[in-house]
Amino acid sequence: MNDAAIRRFAREISRSHRIEKGGKFRLRDHDPADTGPLDDEDKPRAREALEAGRAALAELQDRLYAQDRWSVLLVFQAMDAAGKDGVIKHVMSGVNPQGCQVYSFKAPSEEELDHDWMWRCARALPERGRIGIFNRSYYEEVLVVKVHPPILRAQKIPRALVGRKIWNERYQDIRAFERHMARNGTMILKFFLNVSRDEQKKRFLERIEHPEKNWKFAAGDVRERAHWDAYMDAYQTMIRETAAPHAPWFVVPADNKWYTRIVVSVAIVDALSRLGLSYPKVDKATRAELEAAGRALAAEKK
Ligand code: ATP
Ligand code: MG
Predict the structure, then answer these.
(1) What is the second-level CATH architecture of the domain 3-299?
(2) How far apart are CA 18 and CA 248, in angstroms?
(3) Ligand 1 test: best mutation among 84, 109, 144, most atoms within 8 Å of CB?
(4) Which of 244, 79, 238, 75 is nearest to 167 (CA)?
(5) CB 180 within 8 A of CB 121
(6) Of 292 and 46, which is predicted with more confidence?
(7) Which residue, by CA, sits nearest to atom 26 of ligand 1?
(8) Residue boundaries of the structural domains of the chain
(9) CA pair distance 169, 167, nearest whole angstrom
């Protein structure tokens, strides 16, 4: 495949999983085992696309940094063992670490609970010119917190403010926050890695069976699994309520890791390449300075 063909192919794949309007979005229309137009025979082509994507991303990031106007926020949400860590590692392996920050959000600390729930995420947002990756995010506030009411009760929010409308209020606040960020030059892309319940079980068993994977397994993960349907419901509502053209969700099939990585990689490259990133132009005076410096260097004695 030549470059143009790879780009076309990549764009097609990423667009087919992009949700810009929540509307009637239904999770059950999205198969976790989907591999788009690709099957096992296409894996070499897929690998090519991934390689091309990695090189393209490195270049785009360089321009993003040099231009210093846009920032990029990549949000990853998923059930355990869906492959968040692997995807982040894989996709970012080619980028310059100086222009990229990863934050993993766990259960909030005492200090974090002393603030509104957006606080810790707002502090971690990427600066202009940088790519910020959220491994979990403020979306936990309408996922784990919604699935487990005791977590909400422990949040120290005045009781009068915790009513039946709280989830709608949170979606509303997230929408407002993301609109604000987008209007200030943050490009937001959100990824839901959609793994099936069966595949999760398989991966948990692997983590238990293989000593080198034991560290990845937490007994609590199996307890969360018992709430699968409540989680899927929460994910579906979350996507319906917060998908927007300026902050799309990508529902990424996650039962086949190779395909998950392709979709995430091409989605990022596709979105970044539409920002019109370019290196800053130097003005006449700076050009003259550069030329003078060049002459001085050339004239230096050995
Ligand atoms: P890994 O298991 O791959 O190391 P992880 O993201 O699952 O990564 P854990 O430490 O296992 O990391 O889990 C973090 C936990 O913190 C998750 O169960 C998540 O739901 C929980 N969490 C994150 N944000 C919040 C929040 N705002 N309120 C309550 N729990 C939260
Ligand atoms: Mg975990």
Answers:
(1) 3-Layer(aba) Sandwich (3.40)
(2) 7
(3) 144
(4) 238
(5) no
(6) 292
(7) 107
(8) 3-299
(9) 5
The β-bridge relationship of strands 18-19 and 249-253 is antiparallel
Summarised one tens digit per residue, pLDDT across range 213-241 is 999 888 889 999 999 999 999 999 999 99
Strand partners, 131: 72, 100
pLDDT digits (tens, 9 = 90+) for 253-296: 999 999 999 899 999 999 999 999 999 888 999 999 999 999 99
Task: Retrieve residue 166's tokens.
Answer: 């709280």
Nearest-CA residue for atom 9 of ligand 1: 106
Residue 1 has what DSSP assignment? Answer: -
Whether ligand 1 lies within 6 angstroms of the CB of 28 is answered as no
Q: Would the CB of 151 count as within 6 Å of ligand 1? A: yes
The Cα–Cα gap between 77 and 130 comes to: 20
Q: What's this model's pTM, rounded to 2 decimal places?
A: 0.94
Specify whether the CB–CB gap between 250 and 189 falls below 8 A. yes
Q: What is the largest CA-CA distance in the chain?
A: 78
- Tokens representing residue 185 in the block: 């030059």
The ligand 1 atom nearest the CA atom of 143: 20
